[in-house]
Amino acid sequence: MKIWYQTMSTYRYDPVFDTYGKLLAEQCKRALRPDTEVYVTGVPVVMPEIDRYKSIMTYHSSQMLNHMLRAEKEGYDAFVIGCSFDVGMDEGREMLSMPVVGIAHSNIYMAGMLGEQFAIVTCEPYIAERYRQMITRYGLQSKHLRGPYVFPITEWELAEALNKDPKPVADKFIEVAKKAVADGASVIIPVPAFINQLFYKAGGLTNLDGATVLDPVAVAAKVAETLADLKKIGIEVSRTLQVYGCPGPELLKKTFDTYAPVFKIDY
């Protein structure tokens, strides 16, 4: 089995993300079967703080959609969207025949299975709010301990800590996570992936004061592997009622050809 893990960073295109990308591969491999291959890659270009703006993320994510189509052509069995906000998940599930997994989607449902209430521990208030919106959309708001539980730091500063000494920053997030556990959280989801990597490099963290701490990357990879296994016996996403419509290769090609002249921005 082959799994494509797509990060929205510029891993493989910019050496600043080398440590991040290699750790992503380690996190995936520790959850997957020995015979499952994982390919982790980023996208060619990125702007700072793209996660803040849905409009900018729309253009950024077009790079990922191209990688989705490439992954299917190259025979991958599942595709993981490593973007914190599941950007392109619905579109990918329509375009591709293989399973497409969103990191937030898979971890939110996993947290709901493993505990009674879960908390998002993150670095920015807007991330906490975006997750609140997604959790409502996914129907698990009754299990969400809102907080918010935030230690303010930019993702670029997180990347820098990861490349140097992760422990001081990891300890700050652990303080926030302990507050969530004291408030009643039985499962912690660290968001974005940088935060869990700090835990990983600082010695690993799967349990905190009795609460389960998820590794969002490992969970998403394992869910992708499981869905690929289920597809082999005929269990896959629903195509009825256009829940995940299936345009097929001919309509997709016609769509790309039709919109090619106007799929640009004049500013």
Description:
By secondary structure, this protein is of the alpha/beta class. It folds into 2 domains: about 1-100 and about 220-260, Rossmann fold (3-Layer(aba) Sandwich); about 105-215, Rossmann fold (3-Layer(aba) Sandwich). The protein has 10 helices and 9 strands. It has helices at about 20-30, 55-75, 90-95, 105-115, 125-135, 155-165, 165-185, 195-200, 215-230, 250-260; strands at about 1-5, 35-40, 80, 100, 120, 150, 185-190, 205-210, 210-215. The strands form 2 sheets. A 5-stranded mixed β-sheet has the order 6-5-7-9-8, with helices on both faces. Helix 1 (about 20-30) packs across helix 9, helix 4 (about 105-115) crosses helix 9 and helix 7 packs across helix 8 (about 195-200). It is globular and about 55 Å long.
Brief sketch in words of this structure:
With 267 residues, the chain is of the alpha/beta class. The chain has helices at residues 18-31, 54-73, 89-95, 103-114, 125-137, 155-163, 167-183, 193-201, 216-232, 248-259; strands at residues 2-6, 37-41, 78-81, 100-102, 118-122, 149-150, 187-190, 207-208, 211-213. Strands 6-5-7-9-8 form a five-stranded mixed β-sheet, with helices on both faces. Strands 2-1-3-4 form a four-stranded parallel β-sheet, sandwiched between helices.
